[in-house]
Design goal:
The chain is of the alpha/beta class. The protein contains 7 helices and 11 strands. 34% of the residues lie in helices and 26% in strands. It starts with a strand and ends with a helix. The structure holds 5-O-phosphono-beta-D-ribofuranosylamine.
């Protein structure tokens, strides 16, 4: 049975599109039941509408305070009865209550080789630091921002020709393969959280599973 999945996004939604594409061609056995956003103008919401998927934006500015906004957001999310949450460029930090509610059932993709470079502007920071490697990480969402159990990474070598734009394009191309792949592990019941670690096929992951760029593209 397809895993009921809600996607949370704030922006372009290229990862969301990749997920939809893989689901549409039968490579990914999930049903995307909703796309939710904090930003009404998020391009990802239009992608959902184009695909006939319920899309909703709840802007925080329309609520009295952060707490009532999150209550409304969580309530809307629950109304779709998702089994899994896929955060794909969602630019808000989930409150502890939501992290706990979806513990072991919420994934995020982050554009760095975590635990290196949590937070924003990873491409610029990686280039400025002269790093040899960059990439993306899929991890479980927990109360610790960008620090939940690591599942899988896409890794690529930074070249002398790379600038922020090229690095972003290369990382995102990898993300578009990596994220659906990890979601399929969830759909197959192969991926879970055991204690504070991710586990694949019943074995705790002491480190993330790493795919090189050339293996993914
Ligand atoms: C991705 O690069 C992801 O790693 C980060 O936000 C970006 C979202 O891009 N969390 P898009 O909206 O999927 O195009």
């Amino acid at each position: 049975m397809s895993l009921r999945t809600a996607v949370l996004l704030s922006g372009t939604g290229s990862n969301f599109q990749a997920i939809l594409g893989q689901a549409a061609c039968g490579n990914l056995e999930i049903e995307v039941v909703a796309a939710l956003s904090d930003r009404p103008g998020a391009q990802g919401l239009q992608r959902a509408r184009d695909a006939g998927i319920p899309a909703a934006a709840l802007p925080p500015s329309e609520y009295q305070d952060r707490r009532s906004w999150w209550e409304a957001f969580a309530g809307r999310l629950r109304s779709f009865s998702p089994q899994v949450l896929a955060l794909a460029g969602f630019m808000r930090i989930l409150p502890a209550s939501l992290c706990d509610e979806y513990r072991g059932r919420a994934l995020n993709i982050h554009p760095s080789l975590l635990p290196g470079y949590p937070g924003l502007n990873t491409y610029r920071r990686v280039l400025e630091a002269g790093e040899a490697w960059h990439g993306a990480t899929v991890h479980f969402v927990t109360r610790d921002l960008d620090s939940g159990p690591l599942v899988a990474q896409a890794r690529l070598r930074v070249t002398a020709r790379d600038d922020e734009a090229s690095l972003k394009a290369r990382v995102q191309a990898c993300e578009h393969v990596l994220y659906p792949r990890v979601l399929q592990w969830m759909a197959d019941g192969r991926l879970e959280m055991v204690g504070s670690r991710a586990a694949l096929d019943g074995r705790e992951l002491l480190k993330p599973i790493v795919f090189e760029e050339k293996e993914l593209l």
